[in-house]
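Now for a specimen:

…
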Amino acid sequence: MRNVLIISTSPRKNGNTQTLCEQFEKGAKEQGHNVNLIRIMDKKIGFCRACGACIRNGGTCILKDDMAEIIALFQKADVVVFATPVYFYGVSAQMKTFIDRMYPIWQHLGSKEVYYIVAAGLGIDIIEKSLGDITGFVEHFEHYEIKGRLYAPNTMDAGKVKEQPVMEEAYNMGKNI
């Protein structure tokens, strides 16, 4: 059994990214894995203040919000799924906030298997151009292996992924971790 953490940064509860996360979760749970699906929009998470206190005090952020719980789940995870819609050629603000708030442990991110789930209103070329923030973050892990990338291009309207084979791909990706 693996510990799986899905970080969903879709602002829409029924958005394409969130829907794909739920399919991934379903497949992983059916295989007996311990899965935590965190929807960042449901959490109270402040912006990093760049104060550096976390570095001076051993990795604890001065902000008292839900990020400490998420960091604890991240540290226990064997598998991490980064899921974001693409807005204006970049990851969502929620994903960027999550990445920034991981700063307290940036030198101790551990070893993880990594999956990407990305939905966009435009094509795959735009998705690939948008992943710099996530890629840079993952490259700071002590060891990582990108095990899968699931892209849902041309899915502007919420629910559009339900009409596409990417739904089954998300389920199978979760099932096969």
